[in-house]
Amino acid sequence: METNEISVHQVRVFHCLETASDWLTSGEIARAARVAPRTARAITKKLVDLGVLDVAEVLPAHRYRMSPFADKRNKAYLTRLRQAADVFKNG
């Protein structure tokens, strides 16, 4: 489910994953994006549900990466995330 508002935390998590060269755990994402672990888990779940991220359900922790099909699955949301990133960067 999409919402109209995009938070700075969502932008940080998105940027972390967009620039990553490998799969990341939510803990790694939380540290890199400077958000709480719970926030990272919630945002990664949302981005998986929206088709932006791929998830590898492995133990001991799931791992996430940008989906190579993200633009095809949800181009509108990616555009909004990138626009929000520009606002936060310049605001």
Structure summary:
This protein is mainly alpha-helical and 91 residues long. Helix content is 59%, strand content 11%.
Query: Element order, helices and strands?
Result: HEHHEEH
Which stretches are poorly predicted, pLDDT < 50 over at least 5 residues?
Answer: none
Determine the structural class based on helices, strands and strand pairing.
mainly alpha
Strand segment count: 3
- CATH top level is Mainly Alpha
Proportion of residues in β-strands: 5-15%
Strand order of the largest sheet: 1-3-2
Number of domains: 1
Mean pLDDT: 93
N- to C-terminal distance = 27 Å
Structural notes for this entry:
With 91 residues, the chain is mainly alpha-helical. The protein has one domain (8-83): Orthogonal Bundle (Arc Repressor Mutant, subunit A), CATH 1.10.10.10. The protein contains 4 helices and 3 strands; from the N terminus they run H-E-H-H-E-E-H. A 3-stranded antiparallel β-sheet has the order 1-3-2. Helix 2 crosses helix 3 (37-49).
Keywords:
91 residues; mainly alpha; Arc Repressor Mutant, subunit A; 3-stranded antiparallel β-sheet; 4 helices; 3 strands; globular
Can you lay out the helices and strands and say which pair or pack?
Layout: H1 8-19, E1 24-25, H2 26-33, H3 37-49, E2 53-56, E3 63-66, H4 70-90
